[in-house]
């Protein structure tokens, strides 16, 4: 912008980014016309959040309901359900929740270890049927759960394996491995081989290079895969229902109780899980923001 134009802009109240077209004939800012897209997207976003949060809000509110055998209608506010969550039906809801936690942790541990090794092998090594294995790993993800659960139940029945917590863990491990492989595989493919080569140049053994260089770089992907596996295992109902026998898990307990209204104690556990997950997400975001701020100061 030349000196004359700059002077005219200053005298006229313009900034360098403004032109005469941005203002009216008398130098006043033009009013921006609000189109359909300016309010349609915000309204749609708000409605989507409301639609998603209504069931969560309902669950949280009815966890304080002073219910008896049914938890469908509101009877009054009470904290007794939160203070005595394991006292309903002999502690059945807490036992089901404990079973889901144990199954999720064991299945996640096995699936994460096996899936990580498979992902490293598929990315770093060349062997026969490598492409076929990569394709077959997607089948549990693409197969409907009712088909997968029924097939596993028939297989356990044919072999003569009794249905208990072990069969649930085997079933959950099977479909969780696919998600672990897909997640960790993307992380392995993004690693810079020069970092591992530098470790070998410094006379590091293969195990030292893996544990001191490769594994720390893979840790974010492995943790993400483990969290995804645990969430899928904890939340699963269809496959669990086919292969659980008499063992009750939290989703199975909720399904059986839904016909007479989910007990307030189950709403308490569900609300506590949601609040715990919310605290983890907020804590992770705050930690990430603080880390980025420290790095910015150092830079």
TrEMBL record:
Gene3D superfamilies, alphabetized: MetI-like
Membrane topology: Multi-pass membrane protein
GO terms (BP aspect): transmembrane transport
Keyword Membrane: yes
Record-annotated ABC transmembrane type-1 domain positions: 97-286
Localisation per UniProt entry: Cell membrane
Matching SUPFAM superfamilies: MetI-like
Entry GO CC: plasma membrane
Keyword Cell membrane: yes
Transmembrane stretches, start-end: 39-61, 101-123, 135-157, 169-188, 209-234, 268-287
UniProt KW keywords: Cell membrane, Membrane, Transmembrane, Transmembrane helix, Transport
InterPro entries, per the entry: Bact_Polyamine_Transport, MetI-like, MetI-like_sf
Family, similarity comment: Belongs to the binding-protein-dependent transport system permease family. CysTW subfamily.
Name of this chain's protein: Spermidine/putrescine transport system permease protein
């Amino acid at each position: 912008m030349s000196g004359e134009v700059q002077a005219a802009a200053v005298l006229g109240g313009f900034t360098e980014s403004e032109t005469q077209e941005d203002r009216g004939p008398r130098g006043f800012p033009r009013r921006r016309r609000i189109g359909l897209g300016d309010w349609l997207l915000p309204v749609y976003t708000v409605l989507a959040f409301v639609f998603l949060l209504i069931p969560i809000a309902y669950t949280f509110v009815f966890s304080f309901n002073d219910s008896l055998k049914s938890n469908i209608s509101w009877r009054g506010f009470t904290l007794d359900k939160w203070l005595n969550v394991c006292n309903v039906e002999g502690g059945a809801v807490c036992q089901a929740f404990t079973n889901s936690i144990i199954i999720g942790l064991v299945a996640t541990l096995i699936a994460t270890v096996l899936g990580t090794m498979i992902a490293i092998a598929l990315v770093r090594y060349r062997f026969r049927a490598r492409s076929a294995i990569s394709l077959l790993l997607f089948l549990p993800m693409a197969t409907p759960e009712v088909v997968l659960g029924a097939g596993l139940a028939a297989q356990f029945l044919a072999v003569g394996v009794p249905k208990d917590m072990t069969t649930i863990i085997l079933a959950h491990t099977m479909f969780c491995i696919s998600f672990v492989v897909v997640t960790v595989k993307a992380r392995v493919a993004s690693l810079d081989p020069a970092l591992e080569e530098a470790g070998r140049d410094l006379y590091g053994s293969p195990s030292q290079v893996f544990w001191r260089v490769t594994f720390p770089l893979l840790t974010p992907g492995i943790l993400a895969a483990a969290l995804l596996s645990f969430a899928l295992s904890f939340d699963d109902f269809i496959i669990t229902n086919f292969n659980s026998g008499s063992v009750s898990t939290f989703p199975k307990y909720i399904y059986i109780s839904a016909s007479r209204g989910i007990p307030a104690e189950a709403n308490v556990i569900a609300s506590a899980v949601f609040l715990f997950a919310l605290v983890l997400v907020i804590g992770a975001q705050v930690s990430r923001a603080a880390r980025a701020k420290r790095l910015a100061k150092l830079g």
